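Researcher: Go.
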Amino acid sequence: MIFFLSFLACGSDDYGDCEHYIACSEATGQPVTALIATYGPDGSCWQGGADLAEQCRAECSDGITILLEGDGKGLPECEAAEEPAGDNPIVPEELWESWQYEVESACDEGETIYFIYGEGYDDGSGGFTATEWWYGFGSDPFDYDNDTVDTLEFTLVAPMTAAEISGWGVSEAERGYETLRNATDNQSGVPYGDDTEIGYIFDTLNPNGGLNYENRMLVYRVSEGRNGRSASEWGEVGKSFYYPDDESALDGAGRFVWQARRCY
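Model: Structure:
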């Protein structure tokens, strides 16, 4: 790990995917001493001229691809090598690193990948509002011309009772809201539909009634499908959080933040 950290500190783009290749290999439990000697910052790859360096960069890219199809699938150290949302001007800078993705395998051909960032707020007095921003990316992660962002606003119809939440099959969740969704800024032209009924359910606490690690929560969305309305997980695990205004009153006012990824 010490070798890997010193590698990251170099921060050179000339290494291509090699830093990620070493990190991913290490995460999968493979020995990396030989890899560092070859692909590391002082490795033999960078001592033999431009042709050798280019060959090594290609080998690292191929190695990452193989690992992502095997033991490295789902590991953060491996996924970090995937194509990032980058410095796309429509995406807030604080979300660039959060939305790393590999475009070619993210969606089926002809589909658009959407990264969704949502924020909601319960005012502690029965009021709730929420907004989602839907970022649509094309097949080339660095061709920004056709990328779009749609803004969806959610207004409260009524809070859900505990029985209603349980009725959707998520009985451990503490908060639920029936809302109406409207697109207030639609760059993509997707027909979201005006006044669409959407329910949000938030599982904000652990079974002991306290906050989860790093305030993480689970998010469910209730929407109309082929077989009627149903609830399904919406926010990505580990990227959705609840921030109470007062941690001594966890059933009071608080802010919800979530992220999701969908193909359409």
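Model: The two ends are 40 Å apart (CA to CA).
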